[in-house]
């Protein structure tokens, strides 16, 4: 073990540069040293980024530098740990009295060896108000906006701007000012486990919101969060090949994959080692972050199961600041939960060890057809119907089809397959499999060109079949549903399913679908949504609106999608579900839908055990509904309660008895509440009309004296996350960005 002395050098730097806030770090000039900051190298079966940890000895170093504040960075089980305001129900927010001062932030920067970044939104170079204007950089950002790599390389950017509130959008001459919106305030650019431990301990002690960013792919921007400290996982890039790995239930090759590894890197490593890994189709989607934690569907799922089914063990920093291993032998609950039960809920995972399969061949095809002169609307739908009718056959063959059904210009409908992916198939075998479908299409007059190829490894087929997808739009909202196999086998159910899917397109929506199953089984006991297990299709629905639409209009379109267009999908899949990682931000009954009701209960009890103070939060994550909506909520006391409190019959009786004067006077609490309820300075506050009442015998009537009670410190529309544990309050989702405020 070696003590780290860089902290003292950083202290010197801090003393030299007392210029206020911590400086923003340029992404390009990042320090790649894994052992930076306070900590010690610990030996064990760890990846390079996992060896440098916070130990008891390193706590002493913290105390040497700043004995007063060092305990803010201590793990939960340390005797002299210190916390400021962690007993408060809500997280501290910028501007709150308990928000860390600049000097405390500098201490975090110091202890992490300069890894703290003060957020500068990705689009700031296009604006004049943050001192970051840079014409060339702005042009680059505009040019690359739809490229996922741009957003991955930025500490806070998310790929779907709707979910950071569309703040600071890049443009040649953008209107308005660049603000933080739903982005976190600070980021620890984590190089090692010690950085994560320091950030977690600090966030817990200071009662701050903590978010985790890997790539920013999540459909609902769940790697962002206003007023948060974020940890950025992109440096956890190591991949270790374990040729013969043994656990209680598995013996064979495995890969230990760092949390920052993306799909293409995983597949390149698997190719190098001559094995096959079960990951997503998207080349830049993070693998060992949100993907595996959320279940993870794969072009190989019909053959081998979900991504999370391959997990053998994982390393994780928990809310108390400990770094532990979870597997079928140790910390089993955590292992179960982090195998499909969602990211950003139970801890920060630093690596997953997963099964690797033998190298396999694969064949791919891509094609498309549209309505037009030779293909009528009816023929188009008959062709789509013919494909869906045969879905169980393709499922059984272990195939995966990734298709889109979208509206084009001049009222055309386009069906695209990119790709049809046939693992363990030669091209000849794939052609034989699709022959009945292609012949049905031919008889319908459907013409299409097929681009096809055959490969001796998954990597080759994947690279040939899956184009890089574009991101960055703020003009769509999605929802989705898993459709069970029986919906394609039972003729009555099939008719209803077909009508339900078609109705969404007829209404003007788009469909993105996957012919996919959750695997052939037997399934490991994990937290993967049970709706995956009998699935034959995962379908995503899309509603669009012009870029720059008002929040009101977006909210209206969102409601149309969720409440109207998606209802037929839910009606034909009772008790079914959807996929949380590609989710509807306003999914009804998200517990059942994303987790399955029974698994949700178990996940919630694990969450309470491993994260009792609610440090981790993910929108629609387990336990998330205990949080207050940050905007606050309008409330209105029912009229019945008003009548009751005034006791009108009592007044009437007094009047009949000939009594004179005032029968009752006073504050009527139950009758006061028409107004706003929200969170301010860490407390629940109410702002609204309050009533004083005078009731007269003679008149049999009451006089209300009302005044506006403003106990809310600010304007009430604050981007203020609150992690209230008050179960007595109405169940509301917590919002973190303007879109959620609007929806
Ligand atoms: C173009 C595109 C293609 C996609 N393809 C697929 C696919 O083929 N299969 C599939 O299943 N899904 C796919 N997805 C969805 C994808 O799985 C999710 O968006 C997933 O959450 C991405 O994880 P991430 O870590 O890369 O992203 P992020 O947005 O950075 O993180 C997602 C969530 O996981 C949390 N998280 C991230 N890292 C960690 C960590 N180390 N520990 C704990 N929590 C963490 C974050 O806080 C956040 O809540 C795709 C999405 C897009 C946009």
Low-confidence stretches: 1-30, 628-651, 667-673, 679-684, 708-743
The number of strands is 25
Task: Give the rounded overall mean pLDDT.
Answer: 84
The dominant shape is globular
What is bound: which ligands?
flavin-adenine dinucleotide
Describe the strand arrangement of the main beta sheet, using strand numbers: 17-14-16-15-19-20-18
> What is the helix content?
25-40%
The first-to-last residue Cα distance is 53 Å
Main β-sheet, in a few words? 7 strands, antiparallel
Number of domains: 4
Radius of gyration: 28 Å
Discrete helix count: 23
Structural class: alpha+beta
Determine the strand fraction and express it as a percent band: 15-25%
Reconstruct the topology from this structure.
Layout: H1 6-16, E1 40-41, E2 52-53, H2 56-65, H3 102-111, E3 116-118, H4 135-144, H5 148-152, E4 186-189, H6 193-205, E5 209-213, E6 228-232, E7 239-246, E8 251-258, H7 263-273, E9 275-276, H8 290-293, H9 301-304, E10 311-317, E11 323-327, H10 332-337, E12 348-355, E13 357-358, E14 362-370, H11 377-389, H12 391-396, E15 400-407, E16 413-423, H13 427-443, E17 451-455, H14 458-465, E18 476-484, H15 486-489, H16 491-506, E19 510-515, E20 535-544, H17 551-565, H18 567-571, H19 590-595, H20 597-610, E21 633-636, H21 639-646, H22 648-656, E22 662-667, E23 674-680, E24 683-696, E25 701-710, H23 738-742
Parallel strand pairs: 4-6, 5-6
Antiparallel strand pairs: 1-2, 3-4, 7-8, 8-12, 9-13, 10-11, 10-12, 14-16, 14-17, 15-16, 15-19, 18-20, 19-20, 21-23, 22-24, 23-24, 24-25
